[in-house]
Amino acid sequence: MIGIISTAYFTVKDRPGIKTVRKYWWRNMVIQHVKYRGKFFVIATIGYGKANAAMAITYLMEEYPALETVLNVDLALSTNDKFDTTDTVMATKFIYRDADLTVFKDIKYGQIVHEPEAYAFNTEFVNQVKNFKLGVSDGIVGTADMLIYNSKQFKEMVDKYGQTIDVIDTEARALAQIAKKSSVNFVAMKVMYNNALSPWDNDPLHKFKIYETANTLKYLLARLFNLLSSRYVLDFTKSSNDELEVINELFEMSHDAWAKRFKKNTTSLISGLGPSLMLVDKNGVSPEAVDIVEVMKTKLDDEGPSKVILGEDEWKNAPKKWLRKLMFLSNIHVNDDELLWNKSAKYDIKTSKIHSMEDVAKAVSKAIADRSQDKSSYTYDGTTVLKKHLLVTVDAAISFYITNNLTHEFVEDPKHGSKLVANEFIKHLNEQLAEVETPYEKVVVFFKIPAMGAAKLPVFVQTKSRANQPIVFGGYSAKNQKTYTVVDITRNDYDPLKVGSFKVTIRLKNL
């Protein structure tokens, strides 16, 4: 069981494989039990300060003897110029910055009598989280029941302590002290709200920074849940950031199941051995290689946040550093009452380029054809890897809706709808790759389609398992092609008898 302690209150939305089992109050804490992909998490929302933190972790360890790991995931202030709003620090070293017992011999500022100067964690769990990267940086956390408002206060603290710290908070060191004494794994993940040495209490961007930081916290937790609930042994030490973006999306969309598309008895995913990933079984006797290629990658928008989120003046003065990981700021504006299953029809075309299905299929086909020219092989543990696969992912806005050719009604069932979209892509891919032979045992194309609310559905299309033969994507249905039409809103040349002479979007108003 894994415990998460935070001053932020958050809930997990129930969906297949994910369920909030129980929620209750204890003293001044909210406790939630979440079952996520077969792994149990207990989430404690606590009040500020060391006393609340100590009470929370003590309660969790006594109430849940199976607790093996505690994470402190929270917002914090930076005292290091290299950490800015939404940057995340993963701390494994913790000090008190308000403890002054230097009257005792050989006791340093920040140290408690009969306690070490700092608590540090360097366990296998810490290495596992580091390998997964998650866009975090290392740092030291200083804990106190006080905040630092200016550089003078900070200098006075550093002069007393003798070294600098990167993050200030009001909980982490107390949690670390009790976890260390109880032999429990502990890591703190702190998302920076602002720099404590700047006038953050009167910041005109306060509202936006809180919004950004909270969304980054959601993003971080989602990835942590996927990492910690995986049954695989994961080592992404040598993976590039782009590859990790893809891998994290795969975990988000289909969790451990995506790797079984290539190798069913996979137990370990390892990077740095030649291909993007090496899929290894329990005995390591028949590893298989997976190359990852991303096409139509969206360029980073370095012009700051959307004007829709901020006012005009706020937007002009916003910082330039906005990371792609802030996926909750996508430029998709949709009313919940629209009678369209696929909401990509409401992409903001002023800020986002919409690609037709044919354009995407051409880009994917070109990537597959180009990579198929590479006949090289990989080795693992001194022997040649006999099977290698190709995973092509798409980072492009694709806009469409699905209609029944007889009734002209929209298809609103997500599961069936994603199959119809895959069917449309398979048709184009098979046409464009008919004369291409591939050295890969299997080629898989993965992309996401927007669904109801903020959800996204995974679409996987894959070839039949055979190397050194012409590429054929399996699963195409001629019947579905006759019954339904996947209508690309960037085109207007469809048969009006299939899709209707015009499309009407109805918005229901509350009376």
From TrEMBL:
GO terms for biological process: L-methionine salvage from S-adenosylmethionine; nucleoside metabolic process. SUPFAM superfamilies: Purine and uridine phosphorylases. GO terms for molecular function: adenosylhomocysteine nucleosidase activity; methylthioadenosine nucleosidase activity. One of its GO terms (cellular component) is cytosol. InterPro entries: Nucleoside_phosphorylase_d, Nucleoside_phosphorylase_sf. It holds the Pfam family PNP_UDP_1. Residues 30-204 form the Nucleoside phosphorylase domain. PANTHER family: 5'-METHYLTHIOADENOSINE/S-ADENOSYLHOMOCYSTEINE NUCLEOSIDASE, 5'-METHYLTHIOADENOSINE_S-ADENOSYLHOMOCYSTEINE NUCLEOSIDASE. This is Fibril protein.
